[in-house]
Design a protein that fits this description.
Elements lengths: L4 H17 L8 H12 L1 E7 L4 E7 L16 E7 L3 H7 L5 H28 L1
Antiparallel strand pairs: 1-2, 2-3
Helix pairs in contact: 1-3, 1-4
């Protein structure tokens, strides 16, 4: 079954909405948020301060040095400090509509975090 580009984007936006819905459980999705930002900005290191509404990251200086598969340890980076108003809007702006990212990375990202979040929510509800 072939999944359309619109479906993948819609599902990703729904997961972003869900991940930002409850501020007390946003820490469950911290890694998801960082991975989304990492892909969008080609960052090798991302840290989010939800209280100060800031994203700190090291962004690759040249696109040619970015390799999705490798760790990118030896690539030249620039330190970036971004302020955002609303984390949900900021994360949705990070969605790339590139063919390879949509077909391979986003479905993997969504499925792995959907499984993780539902397990965590079930545990916290029964505790």
């Amino acid at each position: 079954m072939k999944v359309s580009k619109k479906t993948i984007i819609r599902d990703l936006e729904l997961l972003i909405d869900f991940s930002c819905e409850n501020s007390t459980q946003i820490h469950l999705f911290d890694l998801f948020h960082k991975m989304l930002i990492r892909m969008s900005y080609k960052a090798v290191d991302v840290d989010i301060n939800y209280d100060r509404k800031r994203v700190y990251m090291n962004v690759l200086a040249e696109d040619e040095s970015y390799d999705l598969v490798s760790v990118n340890v030896f690539a030249e980076t620039m330190t970036v400090n971004l302020a955002y108003t609303d984390i949900r809007t900021f994360l949705k702006s990070c969605i790339l509509e590139d063919g390879d990212v949509l077909k391979q990375y986003y479905p993997f990202l969504m499925s792995s975090f959907y499984k993780r979040s539902t397990k965590s929510l079930q545990v916290s509800e029964t505790a």
